[in-house]
């Protein structure tokens, strides 16, 4: 496919998404209908679509409309490219740009920074001087981070194995197990290091949430909202002499965990909700609660535009409920760990402080925020203990 044909395909996919189709469904549907497209074409089109979704408001302003075509016109203008080279009107290319498709000046900072207008005041209040750098970071592609499974290799060994397969990396300062991929990211899933459980895809800040825990031999540790099991496996790898349990309210989210656990050479006990109560108490209970995902909107930009005030309220109610329900699972001298991949106060300090105000026997001895502007996803974690 020509570059212009890739842009036209991106326009069609974006129109599908703007009409309400889930992003992955729209991309997969186009690929199935377009067997002529090679892997490089699909990768380039995917990049176009995600770039446009990250910068949906600013590209719409640059492009004159919030349509697939407007977003792609805006993308070219934003990159200071030549529209005439892409919008040629030739076969398979988008039609030429007309005089009516002029860009316009940004009307607000939120539009310029690609944040929903209703959310910008809360975003600023949460991040203060870091609000604009964070919003700028969310407009760009996320770095690719790997977690080195120290049970199987150290960082130099992992880096060499990856290099042998054409994947270049360097250590990331956020965590002692983290590597940042600088070349060959699309080869990771086919690499020997991945196949042999030496590395897993995981953001460096997500790894740092686990690294901040003080794990001791014979501890019983529960990942209460395990999901796909990224943090579960990080727990198992960091302290092989602890007993790690995984639970999720929706067990289907953990469907890949057994295979991932086997590849990592780890031991994890998966529990149903009834079994969690029977196995309690635990020395550490981690609740990585469902959240807005605002710290990872580079990776899932559609979530930025899908979030509503009511949706955020529902999330905070869910977060508070999970915290209340999980607290009794913590042993008397245990540690209760609250975590999100959000940058919003309502989902972070707001939830923890409300819990503390209602449960005076609990105290918070550790809080940390990882900023998206510092090269990781945005994350938050707090450690609570009881008198």
TrEMBL record:
Q: Does the keyword Methyltransferase apply?
A: yes
* InterPro entries assigned to the protein according to its UniProt record, in alphabetical order: MeTrfase_RsmB-F_NOP2_cat (IPR049560), MeTrfase_RsmB-F_NOP2_dom (IPR001678), RCMT (IPR023267), RsmB-like_ferredoxin (IPR054728), SAM-dependent_MTases_sf (IPR029063)
Answer yes or no on keyword Transmembrane: no
Q: Which SUPFAM superfamilies match?
A: S-adenosyl-L-methionine-dependent methyltransferases (SSF53335)
- Where would I find the SAM-dependent MTase RsmB/NOP-type domain in this sequence? 134-387
Task: Quote the Gene3D superfamilies the UniProt record gives.
Answer: Sun protein, domain 3, Vaccinia Virus protein VP39
- Sites binding S-adenosyl-L-methionine sit at 248, 288
Q: Which residues carry out catalysis?
A: 341
Q: Fetch the PROSITE patterns from UniProt.
A: SAM_MT_RSMB_NOP
Keywords assigned by UniProt, alphabetized: Methyltransferase, RNA-binding, S-adenosyl-L-methionine, Transferase
Give the highest taxon in the source lineage.
Bacteria
Provide a GO biological process annotation. RNA methylation
MF GO annotations: RNA binding; RNA methyltransferase activity
Under the heading PANTHER family, the entry gives: NOP2 YEAST -RELATED NOL1/NOP2/FMU SUN DOMAIN-CONTAINING, RIBOSOMAL RNA SMALL SUBUNIT METHYLTRANSFERASE B-RELATED
User: What protein family does this chain belong to?
Assistant: Belongs to the class I-like SAM-binding methyltransferase superfamily. RsmB/NOP family.
Q: Supply the name of the protein.
A: 16S rRNA (Cytosine967-C5)-methyltransferase
According to its UniProt entry, this protein's organism is Ruegeria halocynthiae
